[in-house]
Amino acid sequence: MSVILEFTIAAENFRLGRVLSGLSEMEFELERIVPTGHMVMPFVWVTGKNHAAFEEHVRTDPAVKELLVLDDLDGSGLYRIEWNDSPTDLIEAIAAAEASILQARGNDDWVFRLRFNDHDALSRFHDDVLEREMPIHVDRTYTLSEAPDRGHRFDLTPEQREALLLALRQGYFATPREGSLEELTDELGITRQALSNRLRRANEKVLRGALLASDTDVDDTP
């Protein structure tokens, strides 16, 4: 049975966190990591107003070989980071354990939620982290049947679930529409671009969870 691990870690304690930190107005969310040979390439969503400063900040880091822009949507960008050498820390440990990233977001501090195929895989990851002397703080572990709230069924982050519920309750999805993005942003205290991105990604996760057996099982029957 698959098992979920939730933990927090300071950005200064793993390479990707150190590379991304330094611009307090930006929000980061790790989408996935792709092992390529002996390297591990992270794909990161970046939300904020100053993408030019972010790109310059990352590209000047000696650990970074290349920063590629893959998508630019509503004030958020999807980036791929290529390293000069393989980072032997948290990101490599996640890849080695073949864990699925359900949530990974932060700036100065990061929150991770990972899914492992079984308890043995989780144990191997934990042993790996200890061996690398990575100071993570484990918040909780649980199986899917023990999930603490229904939002985890769709792999929603707490922020995505909050935005989606507020939009639903305020009538944002009603016809005719009863609420506006401006009203929602005022209540949540985030930018219009950040809210639009959050709702879009939350909707995608809910639709995938409701309509698809898995991310790769698509039924084309009308």
From TrEMBL:
Pfam (any one): HTH_10
Keywords: Transcription, Transcription regulation
SUPFAM superfamilies in the cross-refs: Sigma3 and sigma4 domains of RNA polymerase sigma factors
Stretches assigned to the HTH bat-type domain: 156-207
Organism whose genome encodes this protein: Haloterrigena alkaliphila
InterPro entries in alphabetical order: BAT_GAF/HTH-assoc (IPR031803), HTH_bacterioopsin (IPR007050), RNA_pol_sigma_r3/r4-like (IPR013324)
Transcription regulation among keywords: yes
Bacterioopsin transcriptional activator GAF and HTH associated domain boundaries: 3-129
Name of this chain's protein: Helix-turn-helix domain-containing protein
